[in-house]
């Protein structure tokens, strides 16, 4: 990785700016990410209401945050694969399919946690 020359508070501020750019790009270009952002906006108050203790609340909110994290990583993989070329290639397809599988597992994880916490 190239050294940016930024240190201390400047490095932290720059990192925050890059992160915010990533959130904005994902929200603008990825329908699934937009849906999951709205899901977490709904899920946080519900988790705070239905969770009986801090652990349950953290698990419920954390499962949706994990889904957002996986979706961001999947979108990043897709962007890199698409950047390298639009012609079909089995490794490109495999990378995209694996990213999609990771999102599916994160969704399943969130569903199971919410079912267990609410039952």
Description:
This protein has 119 residues and is mostly helical. It has one domain (31-118): Orthogonal Bundle (Helix Hairpins). It has four helices and no strands. Helix 1 packs across helix 2 (31-50) and helix 3 runs antiparallel to helix 4 (90-118). The longest helix has 31 residues, at 54-84. The model has no long low-confidence stretch (mean pLDDT 93). One of its GO terms (molecular function) is kinase activity.
CATH class: Mainly Alpha
Number of separate structural domains: 1
Mean pLDDT: 93
Helix content: over 70%
Q: H/E element string?
A: HHHH
Distance between the termini: 47 Å
Shape: flat
Number of helices: 4
């Amino acid at each position: 990785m190239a050294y940016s020359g930024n240190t201390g508070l400047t490095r932290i501020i720059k990192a925050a700016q890059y992160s915010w750019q990533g959130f904005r790009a994902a929200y603008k270009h990825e329908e699934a990410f937009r849906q999951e952002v709205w899901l977490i906006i709904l899920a946080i108050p519900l988790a705070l209401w239905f969770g009986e203790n801090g652990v349950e609340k953290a698990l419920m909110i954390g499962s949706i945050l994990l889904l957002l994290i996986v979706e961001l990583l999947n979108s990043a993989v897709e962007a890199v694969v698409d950047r390298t070329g639009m012609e079909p290639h089995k490794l490109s397809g495999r990378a995209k399919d694996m990213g999609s599988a990771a999102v599916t597992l994160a969704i399943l994880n969130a569903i199971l946690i919410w079912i267990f916490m609410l039952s």
